[in-house]
Design a protein that fits this description.
The protein is α+β, with helices and mostly antiparallel strands. It contains one helix and four strands, in the order αββββ. It has one helix at about 1-25, and strands spanning about 35-40, 45-50, 60, 65-70. The strands form two sheets. Strands 1-2 form a two-stranded antiparallel ribbon. The longest helix has 22 residues, at about 1-25. The protein is flat.
Length: about 80
């Protein structure tokens, strides 16, 4: 199940990239995207995140005020 979700993220990012490259900005533009899938399964919460570019994904636990970074920014440098 998790591999299907990961594959859906990857395929979506590739499809959007092709659409942008073919129809909108052909030379100097870039983009970022962050996506999060949250699901309860067997009394556990499953969080799957994906990102492209320098859009960060953070998990913030409202009860403990704990903050976790769920992504790594992708930068040209």
């Amino acid at each position: 199940m998790i591999s299907v979700i990961k594959s859906a993220f990857t395929n979506s990012f590739i499809k959007i990239d092709k659409l942008i490259n073919n129809y909108i900005w052909k030379v100097t533009s870039g983009s970022t995207c962050s996506a999060v899938f949250v699901m309860k399964f067997n009394n556990k919460v499953i969080i799957i995140s994906a990102n492209i570019g320098d859009s960060s994904i953070l998990y913030i636990n409202a009860n403990s005020k704990e903050v976790k970074e769920l992504s790594i920014d992708h930068k040209i440098s």
